[in-house]
Amino acid sequence: MTTVVTTSSNQRGQDLPVPFARLGRNLRGVTTTTSSPTDTSTAAHTESVTKVYGAGDTLVTALDNVSVAFERSKFTAIMGPSGSGKSTLMHCVAGLDTINTGRIFVGDIDLSGLNDKQLTRMRRDTIGFVFQAFNLVPTLTALENITLPMDLAGRAPDQEWLDTIVATVGLGDRLSHRPSELSGGQQQRVAVARALASQPAIIFADEPTGNLDSRSGSEILEFMRTAVDKFAQTIVMVTHDPLAASYADRVVFLVDGKVVDDLQSPTADSVIDRMKSFGA
Ligand SMILES: Nc1ncnc2c1ncn2[C@@H]1O[C@H](COP(=O)(O)OP(=O)(O)OP(=O)(O)O)[C@@H](O)[C@H]1O
Ligand SMILES: [Mg+2]
Q: 83 CB under 6 A from ligand 1?
């Protein structure tokens, strides 16, 4: 299938498909904070965020004074030992979990200023989530799974954009197949396509290749890389795999709920070296 995509320019002068020209948009009906100047070049950022689970003997500090920014149109990997707070960080920034202290901004919106309804709308309009287990609906076809979130929200998909996603996902005639008839890698590509379809400002992926063999894993990593390079998508991905992390533009390392390192332009070898330095 050939898809013709009209383009416009973003702030960096790159040509973008038209739907992405809207990525920096403000959320309708959500009041943005004006209490402090915020860095709108980041898709999301945290300021001194602490997240504690439990109390007394069972108290766990899952995030300990975390300040981190995720740049727009970049692919960031989060790495760290099991229990270091990677999933907690993504859930909190995505507004799926609350924090104890600090502040979280998605674009220029302070999540603490949102009521439940606004938070739900922020998640729906701004965030895409890809889980380790693909979470596809087994009775729907691949294409129906991709458009499901918009169907549920009662929104018509942008057809031009949907055609672009469908062409990029590279599933061809398998789009009419159900998940059980697709390989793990194909299913996860559907899950990423579903996250892309609503044009979220940021996609979070929690170990999206964790259940895949290396070939299926590289398929999905290539697809996410393409989404960043070609469509200026912002992606934040948790992974344990140095090779997977090497597809990212940057790796943020967490240990015991703290950001301990930050690596630009990672290679598998440089990631392994950093991991050794803090005993992961
Ligand atoms: N709902 C919860 N209740 C209590 N403790 C929790 C809860 N969720 C996470 N934790 C604890 O918070 C810490 C961070 O957990 P988190 O799931 O963020 O780790 P992770 O880095 O994603 O680990 P993994 O690589 O194993 O997925 C862990 O000690 C975990 O046991
Ligand atoms: Mg986790």
A: yes
* Torsions phi, psi for 54 (to 5 deg): 70, -170
Residue 248 has which token pair?
């990212």
CA distance 41 to 256: 28
CA of 86 to the centre of ligand 2 (A): 6
Q: Which CATH architecture has domain 73-93+115-277?
A: 3-Layer(aba) Sandwich (3.40)
Question: Which stretch of DSSP H or E encloses residue 15?
Answer: strand 15-17
62 lines ligand 1 (CB under 6 A): yes
pLDDT digits (tens, 9 = 90+) for 185-223: 889 889 989 998 888 999 999 999 888 888 888 888 998
Its pTM stands at 0.84
- Measured CA to CA in angstroms, residue 154 lies from 93, 106, 148, 157, 184 at distances of 25, 24, 10, 9, 29
Question: Is a pLDDT exceeding 60 seen at residue 11?
Answer: no
Measure Cα distances from 192 to 47, 137, 170 in Å: 28, 14, 12
